[in-house]
Amino acid sequence: MTAQPKDIATYNFAYLDEQTKRMIRRAILKGIAIPGYQVPFASREMPMPYGWGTGGVQVTASIIGPGDVLKVIDQGADDTTNAVSIRAFFKKVANVAVTTDTASATIIQTRHRIPEHPLTAGQVLVYQVPIPEPLRFLEPRETETRKMHALEEYGLMHVKLYEDIAKHGRIATTYAYPVKVEGRYVMDPSPTPKFDNPKMHRSPALQLFGAGREKRIYAVPPFTEVVSLDFEDHPFEVQTFDQPCALCAAENVYLDEVILDDHGGHMFVCSDTDHCEKRRNAPTSPLWGGRAEGAGGGLDQSTPHSTPTPALRADPPHKGEGKEKQ
Amino acid sequence: MYVAVKGGEAAIANAHSLLADRRRGDRSVPALRLDQIVEQLALGVDRVMSEGSLYDRELAALAIAQARGDLIEAIFLVRAYRTTLPRFGYTKPIDTDNMLVERRVSATYKDLPGGQLLGPTFDYTHRLLDPELAAGGDVAEPLQRETEAQAMPRVSAILAREGLIEPDGEMPQDHIPGDITREPLEFPMARDIRLQALSRGDEGFLLALGYSTQRGYARNHPFVGEIRIGEVELELDVPELPFAVPLGTVRVTECQMVNQFKGSAKAPPQFTRGYGLVFGQSERKAMAMALCDRALRATELGEDVTAAAQDEEFVISHSDNVQATGFVEHLKLPHYVDFQAELDLVRRMRAEYDARENPVKAEEKREAAE
C-alpha cells in the first residue's frame, strides 16, 4: 500500500531480471542440445500481450547484449506495427543498436517469415511462435502429444497429410508446414509459409523458437537437418508465383498481394521489405538476380519447382533415408 | 492502412496520444484520483488484485484508471508489473480460522458457533437504481458493535468431528508448494497448483463453468458450507529468527463448498469439499472457484470425467484471461503472409473444382479474364 506509482518503473537491462534470463538461457541450451524438442519454461508476463510475440521477446531479452544489433520483422516487413513496437521496446529497455539490414543484424526476431537474404554463422533468428505443438490440431491434449513425441509416434501426422492428398489431391497445408528435425522430432516451424521451410535446412544461423503463452522454447542449432514431411510420390513443394515482384522484379521470393482498386486490380510485391528496397536501390548489388535461384531461396541451389529437401517417405519411414539422397 | 509503410512509428505514437486524450475525457470534469477508485470502486480493485495476483490497492487503482475501467486490461497491467518483482520468500499458510471476520454465512446450518454475519453484501438489496446516489447525498454511518471474543470455527471442522466429510487433504511431509508464476504448468497437476491457477483464473470463465456443473454437466450437489470474508495475518519465516515474522494483513474471501458424494471404488460415501480463496471481497469468484475445484477432483474421487468443468487441461489451459485476451486479440495483427498462402491454395483448388464441375463456364471465365 506504500508503493508510490512514480517509483515503480525501474527495469533491468532488456527488461527481464537476471534470474529469469538464466532460467530462459537454460531452456535455450537444452533446446539446442535436443534439436526440435519443446522445452517447458516458466514464461513470464511481458508488457505486451500474450500472442503478440512474448515468447520471442523473452528469448531475445535473454540472449541480447549491449553489443548486439537487432532487427525485428513481422510478415517479412520491418515497418509493420508490431515489429515497430517490439523494436522500440528493445531500444528502450536495452538501448541496443537496431537495423533493418538483414546482413548486419546479429539477432533477428521474426513473425511469419524468414528473410530472403541468406543468414550467416553467428546470426540468431528468433521466431515468435503461437502454438508450438505441431500435433495440437490433431490431438488437443498436451499429456497425449508429449507421449507421442517421446515415442516418436508420428503416424497421426502422416495420416493427416495422406488424407489431404486423398481428398484434395495435394497436401493442403500452406504455412506452419511440419518438419522433422535431425531425423527425430517433428516440429512446427511457426506459421511461416512453407516457402520458407527450405531456408531452415542446414542454416548456418542459430534458430530459436519462443512460445510465451504456451510456455515452450525449442531450437534448431546451425547446420541441422530440417526436412519438410512429404511422400515419395507427393514430394514437398514450395509456393511459386506466376509473376515477379512488381517493384524490384525479384523472382523466387515470397510475394504479398496488394489490392489496388475495387475492380480486382492487384499487384504482387516482395514480402521482405528490406530485400526489396536493397534491390531497388542498388540493382548492381550481388543481390540483384543472384537470389533468383533456389526455390524458397535456400542454400540449396537446385532448380526451381523441384524438391529442395530430400523426401522423407512416410511409409515405411527408414531412418536417415532422406540423408542418403543428399 | 494500419500496416503502414514507413511511418508506423509515428502512427503508433499518435494513436497512443489519442488514447491518453480519450482516457482523460472532458477536461472540465475533475480527473479521478486513485484514492477515489480504491474507496469507491473497491470491488473492481479487488478483482484486479485477485486476478492480477498482486495485493496492492493503489497499483490496482492505477491500473484501472490507466485501462479506462477495462478490468482485464488492468489485470494485465498489474501482472506485467508483478512479474518483474523479486521473490523474497513464501509466507506461512494463512489461517482463516483466525480471520478477523466481517462477513460469514453458512447455508448448511441455521445457527452455528460464531453466528451468521451478513456484513457488507448486495444480497437482499432490491436492485432498484438509486437516484439519491446520483445526486451525491450523504451516507449515514453504519451501526457498529464491539467485536466478540467468540471463536468462529469453520463449518468444515464442525462436520469433520462427525467424520462425515473427507479430511482436508494432506500433502506429503516433504511437499514444497508449487508456484505457477515460476514454473511451467505441467499436466496432470497437483491440487495446490490447480488452486493457484483457479484463484487467478477469469471470474467470468469460472462462473460459467461452475454454473454448468449446477445445470448437470458434472453435477456435484453443492452446498455452501461457509463463506467468510475478512482480514488474515501473513507471517514469514526468516532464517535468522526463531519465530515467524508478521508482515501485515490481507483481506480475502474464502468459500468452502460441501458436496454430496455417494462413494466410488476409490472413496466411501461422505461429503466432499470444493475450495475457493481469492484476494479481497469476491464471493462470486470464490464460489465459482470452489465449484470448479470440486469438479476437477473427479479423477481423484473415482468419478467419470464427462464434462468440460471436470477436464483439467481444458479448464486450466483456458482460465487465464490475460493469456486468453492476448491470443484472441492477436488475430488483429497482420497475417497477410499466411493469408496469401491460403489464398493461393484456395484459388488453385477452386479453379480445379470449376473445371471439373462446369467446364464451359470455367472456360468463359478464363477468356473473360484474358
What does this structure look like?
Chain A is of the alpha/beta class. Chain A has helices at residues 18-33, 54-63, 81-93, 142-150, 155-168, 197-200, 273-281, 321-325; strands at 39-40, 69-74, 97-98, 107-111, 124-128, 179-181, 185-187, 206-211, 216-220, 226-228, 255-259, 266-270. Chain A contains 8 helices and 12 strands. Chain A is globular. Chain A starts with 17 loop residues before the first helix and ends with a helix. Mean pLDDT of chain B is 91; it is low at 1-5. Chain B is α+β, with helices and mostly antiparallel strands and 370 residues long. In chain B, strand 2 and strand 3 form a beta hairpin. Chain B folds into 2 domains: 9-82, no CATH class; 96-119 and 150-168 and 177-326, no CATH class. A 4-stranded antiparallel β-sheet of chain B has the order 1-2-3-4. In chain B, helix 2 (34-40) packs across helix 4, helix 4 packs across helix 5 and helix 13 crosses helix 14. Classes of the chains: A alpha/beta (326), B alpha+beta (370). Chains A and B meet through helix 3 and strand 11 of A and helix 1, helix 4, helix 5, helix 12 and helix 13 of B.
Q: Nutshell version of this structure?
A:
The complex is a heterodimer of chains A (326) and B (370). Chain A has 326 residues and is an alpha/beta fold.
Features:
heterodimer, A: 326 residues, alpha/beta, seven-stranded mixed β-sheet, three-stranded antiparallel β-sheet, 8 helices, disordered C terminus, B: 370 residues, alpha+beta, 2 domains, four-stranded antiparallel β-sheet, 14 helices, 4 strands, 41% helix, globular, disordered N terminus
